[in-house]
Amino acid sequence: MNLLKKLSEAQGPSGNESVVRAIIKKELKPYVDEMYTDKYGNLIARQKGKGVSVMLAAHMDEVGLMVGEVDSQGKIFISAIGGLEPITLLGENVQLITSKGKKLEGLITTRDIQDSHELEELPGMGNLYVDVGMTREEVDKAGVIPGDYVYIVKDYLELGEGGNFVSGKALDDRVGCYMLIELAKKLKKSKGNMYYVFTVQEEIGLFGAKTSVYSIDPDYAIVVDVTESGDGKIGGAVKCLGKGPVIVVKDGEMMTTRCINKWLFDIARKNKIPFQPDVSDFGTTDALNVAVSKGGLPCGVVGVPVRNIHTTTSVAHKQDIKDAIKLIELLLKNPPRICL
Known about the structure:
Blueprint: H1 2-9, H2 18-28, E1 34-37, E2 43-47, E3 53-59, E4 64-70, E5 76-81, E6 93-97, E7 103-110, E8 128-131, H3 136-142, E9 149-152, E10 157-159, E11 165-168, H4 171-186, E12 193-199, H5 207-212, E13 220-228, E14 246-250, H6 258-270, E15 276-279, H7 287-291, E16 299-306, E17 314-317, H8 318-332
Parallel strand pairs: 3-12, 3-13, 13-16, 14-15
Antiparallel strand pairs: 1-2, 2-12, 4-5, 4-9, 5-8, 6-7, 6-9, 7-8, 10-11, 11-17, 14-16
């Protein structure tokens, strides 16, 4: 999965997805008939067909950081882009690209602990800062200003015997981007009119998904994303690594379309693909905005379970990714017509 490694290690926080978009464009070019970037930054690729029009969507952006302010000592305080737990950021190596184009290396740290009672308190985002080893004057000269992106640097790893597990940053949702690229290769001869949509700014409000539907007008959509694994949680895991893709029935914000879910369930059972139905009271995906754009759109969600979501140490199982690709491929070789 060299492509997944490349996607995971690429920098693409919300609002700054251009590097990821360039990788995807290069990989997709041989397999699609047309491709363009819309006004909002979504990448849309099409394989022309005479059948049903289907939208497959995955988001390019990742949670991230940017400069909030710089204090008198040159400490660069940071602001979160999307949902990040401050405790998971301590000690991370980062790169900061300044407004003058200068690259600074640094690490995320917090104020010194003064007594044992402070050890019991988890640091908030406001207590974290980037140390680049510079004075305030040197930081100013380098061109550091509020709004500069701070990029977390993390290598992609393969874990376990046989490398069956993968770990890295931004698996949410570079796993989905990887899956869409692989599906474009496999569905080139599909009878459907296939759209592959790589959205922006999912992590801060699902914004790209909402605008992307307007230019393509599909018959229905399937959103591909990752979902928090329940491995190791008290009460038993609901979604486990290695037990197949997740088919979302309900999340914290929406219900997916029943007939799409039935298609997926039936295909999985018929082809002995393990799967995990998901009913959750928390979280959501791009499907929320896709489903209510224009006049409304039937929508399904296929997910891959991931441990430690929204951290740089996310973990996924290769077989879950492969099974999710196979499930969607079998459905869309000859896409069925929607029946509500």
